[in-house]
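User: Can you predict the 3D structure for this chain?
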Amino acid sequence: MHRMMEELELQSGTLRRVLKRPRRLETYSQNAAVLVVLGLAMEADTHEVKDPAKLPQWTTWSKEYHQAMSGLNTAIKAGDGTKAKSIFDAANEGCSTCHGVFRN
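Assistant: Here is the predicted structure, written as structure tokens:
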């Protein structure tokens, strides 16, 4: 999970910078595609869930992240920076919430 989160941070950092001033946005769809795939892996890797009662929450948040990254990838491919930034920002809020429960 640690290595996966490092990759998420790397790809997210690139997209964060690009979405501040979107130019040639379509060329960054590969970054979003990596996040889509990592969202699937996140759902499968449940070792961070120490309390079995919290597994449904992990699954829900992982699926939401995966769906958000799919939408982000679609918006980036379409060159829609406003929509992409909105999706990206909302997904990052979800990350913070999840980290508050499972990482701390």
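The chain has a mean pLDDT of 93. The radius of gyration is 14 Å.
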